[in-house]
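Quick one: structure for this chain?
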Amino acid sequence: MKLSINGRDIEVAADPDTPLLWVVRDELGLTGAKFGCGQALCGACTMYADDTPIRACVTPIESVAGQKITTPEGLEGRIAEAVRAAWEKHDVAQCGYCQPGQIMAAVALLNGKPVPTDADIDEAMTGNLCRCATYGRIRTAILTASETLKG
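Got it. Here's what it folds into:
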């Protein structure tokens, strides 16, 4: 099966119903997206399919063939840079396990809503769980990234 991951066309030898997360991590060695729950509930495995966040732990590769897949390693651009800088500035990560998924969700939010409200942030980040409970810092970092992008 052919997949387009982080701008590269890749041929993978996996069953069509294999979850995208396992192909990306095990066959391609891209370990930014994490396995958290295996049920699309925690957001640790978040990637983009055609710029839309998906839960890669439950997404079979056959369903994303022909789409542009972006993993945390392939996330780039002005918004991604602003989000990463805000994450560092506000010391968001503690254990860091959930952070790739959190960042993917935050970038997707700012792509669609450059000036989000608290309600927009709550809605966009729902389903991205943080065991360390850094939700306040996550919100602050998203608002900081938004301000940076305005300037």
